[in-house]
Amino acid sequence: MKIETIIKYYEAYIPPRCRKSRFREVTEKVWNNVTECTLGDVELAFKVEGQPIYAYRGKIYKEEKLNPCVKDRFDSALDELIRGGNVYATYYARPKDWNRKDFWSEDNQESREDIMRRLEDDLACYLVIDGVLFKQTKAPMYRLVTFGSTGGGVSLFVEYYQYPPEVTVGMRGLYYSALDYEEAARMADEIAVLHGNPEKVGTFEKLIEVYKPEFVEPVLN
């Protein structure tokens, strides 16, 4: 699938009867590819609360949802990707050196090649499966979080990003791989009792179904 996107960047030029170069802003529409396939080309890797995550060529993808803030302008996430990029200038040049005092000066902005590389990297994360937009993701895992001390409650939910170990356990919670639901639920039950919430014992549901264990990622606690 071809996607049209507006990019804006600065290019150097030398005006007539001048020796010193100047910069001018250039607006350009460019085309890039987004990979397309069918359901027959992918394999089911996980289901998270009933929603499929598919494996395709060694990577996993989950469905991209339409941002509620733009639901009055676009019909779907794919529609936003297709039409949004050719209606709004979504790729501006960024400063190359943020440490410069004049970091917004024209000679410190990304070149056209820099912007194209960034755009191509971003689009490479997408996959269109039978007309539905999916985006590359990390493997789902369980995150166990407590709220306050006694009586504060405990929650077990799905996470795709793991805070680094140097973040205190109380803030980052405890992580369990998608294959370790039983251990996560057992710990949640224990904490619920310690926090004075015995009514929550046995209520922590299995949220992740694993179909391709090779995509499960280890966790760090």
Structure explained in plain terms:
Helix content is 17%, strand content 33%. With 221 residues, the chain is α+β, with helices and mostly antiparallel strands. It has two domains: 2-136, no CATH class; 141-208, no CATH class. It has a seven-stranded mixed beta sheet with strand order 3-8-9-6-5-4-13, with no helix packed on it. The protein has a three-stranded mixed beta sheet with strand order 2-1-7, with helices on both faces. Strands 11-10-12 form a three-stranded antiparallel beta sheet. A hairpin with a 2-residue loop joins strand 5 (51-56) and strand 6. The longest helix is centred in the last third of the chain and has 14 residues, at 181-194. The radius of gyration is 24 Å and the shape is elongated. The model has no long low-confidence stretch (mean pLDDT 89).
Proportion of helical residues: 10-25%
Number of beta-strand segments: 13
> What structural class should be given to the helix and strand makeup?
alpha+beta
The proportion of residues in beta strands is 25-35%
Q: How large is the radius of gyration?
A: 24 Å
Mean pLDDT: 89
